[in-house]
Amino acid sequence: MIEALKEAKKAYKKLEVPVGAVIVKDGEIIARAHNLKETKNDTTKHAEIIAIQKASKKLNAWRLEDCEMYVTLEPCTMCAGAIINSRIKKIYIGTKDPKTGACGSILNLFEDYKFNHKVEYETGIMQEECEKILKDFFKYLRTIKK
Question: What sign results for the dihedral spanned by CA atoms 114, 21, 139, 43?
Fold first, then answer.
């Protein structure tokens, strides 16, 4: 999660919502990414989606069955769906997202539906640090928008 937080800090510096993600296979980081929605003017440029794309390219495969993802913020429905479809084995989530979270906050795509792939997940990984960067970011945004 430390590496995912480093990615979140990169997003913060670009005035992107500070979310970072890394994908690990056999104990080695194979992909890392952060949000780029504002920079790229693209709704789909969430950290999780970009990390999945990079991992797929590195492995030359869309199935990431033996991979794990670390992400600082609970994935939305788009990202949770991509995680399921990419066959990621397990996801470690820093903090919950009570507004758009699709891994237990608003709904739970990993448990409430019968998809062809089951994703294991764990929440609360370095939760304080993951919450802090988000709170600091939105506090900072309010000061520059006055």
Answer: negative
CA-nearest of 10, 7, 8 to 32 is: 7
Residue count (the chain): 146
Q: Is the pLDDT of residue 145 over 90?
A: no
What is the distance between the alpha carbons of residues 116 and 113, in angstroms, rounded to a whole number? 10
Residue 146 pLDDT > 70, yes or no?
no
Residue 113: the pLDDT is: 87
Question: Is 48 designated active site?
Answer: yes
Please tell me the distance from the alpha carbon of residue 43 to that of residue 96, in angstroms, as a whole number. Answer: 20
* Angle (nearest 5°) at CA 121 between 115 and 127: 145
Catalytic residue among 7, 16, 38, 48: 48
